[in-house]
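During the no-cost extension, the postdoctoral fellow (Dr. R.K.) reprocessed legacy sequence entries with the updated structure-token encoder. One reprocessed record is reproduced below for audit purposes.
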Amino acid sequence: MSWIVRKEDIILSLMSKVKVVIIEDEFFAAKHLKSLIEENGFECVSIFRNGEDFVNKTDWNFDLAMVDIFLTTDFSGLQVAEHMNKHKKPFLFLTANQDMLTLQEAARLSPQTYITKPFNPNDVIAALEMIKYQLPEQLEIQDVNGKRSINPMDILYIQADRSYIEIYTSKEKIVQRKSLNEIIEVLPEQFVRVHRSFLINTIYVQSISASKVVIDGIEIPISRSYRGVL
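Re-encoded structure tokens follow.
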């Protein structure tokens, strides 16, 4: 699926609500968190009661996650966090347990912060606000269904095609009438140009050689004039 987007329709947007997913097996805790974050200007896009459901059903269309370390099934919050890191999604841990070994294992996964149970509302909102301002600015585009936002960190690479560019994520290709020079001006510093026809998101690089870089299994050429950037 693809859309053609006019140059004037793509802008940086700080007004879009931050999308939050909750992975919490305690019904009332999850419900309380949902109400709390929505009352404070965030958007709860989904709640999952266990890690398996999250991994199997999520579309990864969220900005950050709240993950209970001690989910009641065999699929722990630590395993969920490994998937978060794989997909480059920020997250915080929810925990009522102060077991040092578990917290040390959790720290290895680089959460943005921890929130202890029972929740202090001020602590929850302070943590979300802190993460919010670490997120990249959203790209707001106009597609056939109206305006929507794209997290630029979901972009794998961008390819120029004559007077258009093709933006590739793991889920879709978005076509717009714009140049690579124009789009790179509104992207985070993780994006670099490796060829006159390619911009890449360096966080997704799987391998690199003198002549090519591999992202999501796709070989992207590196031209001689851009070899120094990586």
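The longest helix spans residues 27-39. The chain has two domains: 4-12+138-229, 19-132. The remaining legacy entries will be reprocessed before the final report is submitted.
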